[in-house]
Amino acid sequence: MTSSLLLFFALALPAASADQSNNPHQDVIVWPYGMPPAGIAHKEDFGNHILSISHREKDGRAELHQTKVDVMIVQSGEATLVYGGQVIDPQPTAPNEIQRSGIKGGSRIEVKAGDVIHIPTGIPHQFFLAPGKQITYMLVKSSIRPIKIAENSRSNIAPKHVSNMCLTCLMVRIQ
Q: Count of domains in the chain?
């Protein structure tokens, strides 16, 4: 199924131009049609956040990020999201990352295309898929560390440093 989905994207969507040579702001990235120009497996790492596309055709593992926030925008499909509770027999898989096979005592919610999901740091979460179902979502993974607001920004945020506990949830009113 994954290979047929990738083939669908390759054939159904016009070629996305990754040419940034005429872009005066090389840090501005555009993913035409919600797909990274370098392919579905590509991750854009901006230092304080990462953009990627995730596709699942089977249940995921229980995850807990100690220093990262997950924001997911469901593009297609449906799944059951279990969140909260405790990771059963937690095992570190990378610095500040814990995974395992399940969650004990979490809450369940059905998610589908168009839903936006925010998972704060320290909250276990796991996707479950019914047989024959799939889910594809854009993932913004944001680190918890100070970010600097540009000196020439016309934002009304003071001081010049803020914590991006959820970079995508920070709303700035431009004057």
A: 2
